[in-house]
Amino acid sequence: MTPHILVVEDEAALVELLRYNLEEEGFRVSAAADGEAALAAVAEDKPDLIVLDLMLPLISGLEICRQLRRRPETRGLPIIMLTARGEESDRIRGLDSGADDYVTKPFSPSELVARVRAVLRRARPALAQDSLGYGELVMDLAKRRVTREGRAIHLSPTEFRLLQYFMEHPGRVFSREQLLDAVWGLDAEVEPRTVDAHIRRLRKALNDGGKADLIRTERAAGYALDSKPY
Ligand code: CA
Question: 180 alpha carbon to ligand 1 midpoint, in Å?
Fold first, then answer.
């Protein structure tokens, strides 16, 4: 299940930045540029979480928050409020608008994504992505277990992280260097060909029993989890 995030913000550049970063992390994103559009969007296609700017034309973010809290069908809808540094954030805390969390501008997109995940985890544990699915592959992040067609696949911690990274970005091709950074970390002194060795082992474990190869090698580019699992 893909969590749906509604971004309510009148600054188009910020909307696009948030859209890009949230979609990159696997969320579905819709946007509204003012308060009326936001309320209409919520009525039409209820999101799992709203990122709501305080300073909006027509109806303020504070008022939208209050309206949503008054309605039974949106009372529990998680809201993260965006506020400008300074008086608004103090004011909004004082007024207890009912938002679940606040993020003060300027913020980094990764900080916002982390807050979104945290609020979703609290509000809707089922949406917090405790597992990843890809075709017949299922990765249980809490139990650190992987199955393919229900059969357990045994992976080393490194291969598990490698597969998790692929499953979070299915179909995308990553170079050895990108995989090194993402899975081993920037500081790790690991040779690019180490990646090849781990890919080989991961592939062998995944394809055990003569199953279709799920990892695609892109000549001179890198590796991807194949975008067509069936
Ligand atoms: Ca604004």
Answer: 38
Residue-wise pLDDT for 92-104, tens only, equals 554 566 788 888 8
Q: What structural domains and CATH numbers belong to the chain?
A: 4-127 (3.40.50.2300), 131-225 (1.10.10.10)
Q: Which amino acid is at 215?
A: I
Count the neighbouring beta carbons within 10 Å of the beta carbon of residue 65.
22
**E strand spans, 33-160:** 49-53, 79-84, 101-105, 131-134, 137-140, 145-148, 151-153
CA distance 225 to 132: 13
The reported pTM is 0.57
Distance (angstroms) between ligand 1 centre and the Cα of 64 equals: 13
104-118 pLDDT per residue, tens? 888 888 889 888 988
**Collapsed DSSP state (helix, strand, coil) of residue 112:** helix
Tell me, in angstroms, the distance from the centre of ligand 1 to residue 211's CA: 52
